[in-house]
Amino acid sequence: MAEQRTGRLGYQAYRAGVLLRRPSEIADRLRGRLERRFDTVLPIAFTPCDEIHTRLHRLLGVPVGCDACLGFDDVWASVTARITDPCGHDAGAGLARAAWAAVTHLRPDRVVETGVARGVTTAVLLEAMERTGRGALWSIDLPDLHLAWRGGVSAAVPARLRTRWTYVRGSSRRRLPAVLADLGSIQLFLHDGLHTHGNMLFEYETAWQHLEQGGLLVSDDVDGNGAFSHFAEWTGSPLALVCPEDRKPGAFGLVRKPAPISPRPPDVG
What we know:
Blueprint: H1 2-21, H2 24-38, H3 52-60, H4 72-81, H5 93-106, E1 110-114, H6 120-132, E2 136-141, H7 145-149, E3 165-169, H8 172-183, E4 186-191, H9 197-210, E5 211-219, H10 227-235, E6 240-244, E7 251-256
């Protein structure tokens, strides 16, 4: 009992210190709580599990029977081995596999994600970049204070991968516009931060403006509200997909920004 009391006091002292050093985070955390309270859950149509792999590769415009994605299972085992205790903030295998396929096939130079927590998806993205030999990742994250107090933020990301990584602390509403403005354009965006209707739409619309044609927007937890379905409908892109997670509740979504159609060459003769 005394140990638990000491732990609680230590956490409270840590939290107070963080909020004193970073007062802007107070408003951001309170705003997030209010948004979660008033969000509503809307039904989302899932793609049948046995079609996900096929439809994902069609969305990326690559052959279904590719060998490039075969390395994911070993990487996933390595990433999850570094974080043995379960945590609700960790990404599922389905989202991670989609992120792996996106980097492997699109070979992006600039990737932005929101939400890090213990860095499961972060590590997968960076490992895929390491194997393709190109790309850099910017991660915007307002960390869970309890996770940060325990030293668990980005615990899944090994030191050897961090040369390609820039960690930006803060809420996406404060940090995302400036990061994207500095980068100019990106080829892949992944949302896994605050899953509220307002915040998700803000991130989608902000990232879409900087996403190159042919680029991909990926979002976790699209089943919690209607933000992703509303956004996919607004874009008018025929390249959208919603998939159930693998071995955990929820669903993730993908929408690809259509590339311009090449003009047909003139007939000869």
